[in-house]
Amino acid sequence: MELLATFALAAALAAGPGPEEPSPEAVQAVLADTDHMTLRSFDQRTRQSNELPNERYRLYAAQSAVNGNWGDALRQFRKAARYADKYSQHRLSLMYWHGVGVERDPATAYAWADLAAERAYPTFVILREKMWLELDDAQRERAQGIGVALYAEYGDKVAKPRLADAMLHTRTRMTGSRTGYDDGRLQVYAPSVGPGGMGGDADQVEMSAIYASWRLNPKHYWAVEDAIWKHGNVEVGPATKTDADD
């Protein structure tokens, strides 16, 4: 046991200090209202996002964020970001900008913000430009270098095919007509999971939305995303100047 403790201590020292505890103001700037969910809502959203990795990891990240587990939130948002999830890329930019769950790094924050704005969604573009104005010359040069590496791993050119492959895998496992026939009468329900275990017949979660054709068709899925992010109301959070910028 003493030997294991010694190894654990040595590993911790080698890793160096972790990120500092974020201030309440920083947490408020990074936390989204939609991170807060009831148990029933989380259960339903878990079931609905189960077949789409970007939505599933994004949901796990939101749960970790609201519980203050920011290190895990960072990891989960990064996983979602690999599947062309622009909202998760945006959340990563805010975490790096405010130093929540990670060492504060404005250059990396901008690189993630630039990636989130890849499809020119107005709210993400505005935030990216606000961040750029706050960077000094050295930070801007560093941000551009970081951005090249991020685009190679998380840009739409490589990330969209990952999600398309996941959708294809889901479609091959679905039951029903192989010709794609749907007369609109199919309804899918799953029991809701509550504190007491499995719910009864009166407590059911309507699951038909999972099988909506647009959710498993890459072209339609991104068309819906474009419509939402270009014309809908979204939470982006402010890019505020901090003492560390001075």
From TrEMBL:
- Domain of life, source organism: Bacteria
- What this protein is called in its record is Sel1 repeat family protein
Task: Name the source organism.
Answer: Lysobacter panacisoli
Source taxonomy lineage? Bacteria, Pseudomonadati, Pseudomonadota, Gammaproteobacteria, Lysobacterales
